[in-house]
Automatic annotation (TrEMBL):
This is Activator of HSP90 ATPase. It comes from Acrocarpospora pleiomorpha. It holds the Pfam family AHSA1. The lineage of its organism: Bacteria, Bacillati, Actinomycetota, Actinomycetes, Streptosporangiales. InterPro entries: ASHA1/2-like_C, START-like_dom_sf. Residues 29-135 form the Activator of Hsp90 ATPase homologue 1/2-like C-terminal domain.
Length: 205
């Protein structure tokens, strides 16, 4: 598998309004029920995403280890899951929605992240700040569904393969940003900053 092909499997869109809306779509060679279970079963989630705790039902709350938490806003198995996505002391509005639909003998996976983003964060990093993280998550889901071993999240960014993936993801979000009206100079700065954040030069191996 060429790792960059995993980046190219996804289509990215950005609505660059006062509230940012990032959308990722890609197809998986697995049926809807399997993808749904991988995204909602706590035991499976920890294998490709993060450990999760909480009252994992509609109206309940969840907490991802070292990451976001929030409320389960909608749960319509096996097609729709929506949660608030709160991280940090003053996160503002942030929601994530996952929709699944059958496509041939596979599943079309769509993730939409809608959030208020501080202007300085947006001008410095653009959509890649969250987008690269989502691409890494979708890579994890792809490997999990195919039965391939997961990447080592602690060292992947230090490897040549990991850096290629992160750079391609950051550039892909830059293209989505520019397509949504982002100024080219701001986009270039955001892509460079995002790539450096996820794969610092001095940590390459």
């Amino acid at each position: 598998m060429d790792i960059v092909d995993e980046v190219n499997q996804a289509h990215r869109e950005l609505l660059n309004g006062e509230r940012k809306v990032m959308t990722l779509r890609r197809r998986y060679d697995a049926d809807v029920e399997d993808v749904w279970d991988a995204c909602t079963n706590a035991e499976r989630l920890r294998r490709w995403f993060l450990p999760v705790t909480g009252d994992l039902r509609l109206g309940g709350t969840y907490q991802l280890e070292g990451n976001a938490g929030g409320e389960i806003l909608r749960c319509e198995p096996p097609r729709l899951l929506a949660v608030s996505w709160l991280y940090g002391e003053d996160p503002g509005f942030s929601e994530v929605e996952v929709r699944l639909s059958s496509e041939g003998d596979g599943t079309l996976f769509e993730l939409r992240h809608t959030a208020d983003v501080p202007p300085d964060m947006w001008s410095g990093y653009g959509p890649g700040a969250a987008g690269v993280g989502w691409d890494l998550s979708l890579l994890g889901l792809s490997l999990h569904l195919s039965g391939a071993p997961p990447v080592d999240e602690n060292t992947f960014h230090q490897t040549h393969e990991g850096r290629r993936f992160i750079t391609a993801s950051s550039q892909a979000w830059g293209h989505a940003h520019e397509a949504a009206g982002g100024p080219p100079d701001q986009v270039a700065t955001a892509v460079a900053n995002t790539t450096a954040f996820y794969a610092p030069e001095d940590e390459q191996s």
